[in-house]
Amino acid sequence: MHPVAFAGAAAGRLAHHVVSGVVGALVVRGAVKHLPEAKPAARKAVVNGLAGGIRAGRWLGSAAEEARLKAGDVLAEARTTLGEEAPPPSAVATDHDHGHEH
């Protein structure tokens, strides 16, 4: 895909999201202005939407960690097949120097 076409497609998607967000904000603002009793319902909808986003983020994080671990297992098995010693898995690098004492 040509870089200009890629940039155009990205700009189109960005414009779509901006317009959708602005229209949504105007609808909510108009509803709150004209129907004061709609404010608690709108707040509840926003809170529920954010809670769903948090749950989705946690699920995605868990899925990404699971995929990382499976990829590490496959890589270790490939190294063993080649006769190399696979390094032990570690979440934290132990030999690092970034300018301060531990």
Verbal overview:
Helix content is 75%, strand content 0%. With 102 residues, it is an all-alpha fold.
Describe the protein's topology.
Elements: H1 3-34, H2 38-81
Q: List unreliable stretches of 5+ residues.
A: none
Biggest sheet details: none
The string of secondary-structure elements, in order, is HH
Overall strand count: 0
Helix/strand class? mainly alpha
Residues in β-strands, percent:
under 5%
Oligomer state of the chains in this structure: single chain
How would you describe the shape? elongated
Helix residue percentage: over 70%
Helices, by number, come to 2
Mean of residue pLDDT? 78
Roughly how many Å apart are the termini? 49 Å
Radius of gyration: 24 Å
Task: Give short descriptive properties of this protein.
about 100 residues, mainly alpha, elongated, single chain
How would you summarize this macromolecular structure in one to three sentences?
The chain has 102 residues and is mostly helical. The chain has helices spanning 3-34, 38-81. The radius of gyration is 24 Å and the shape is elongated.
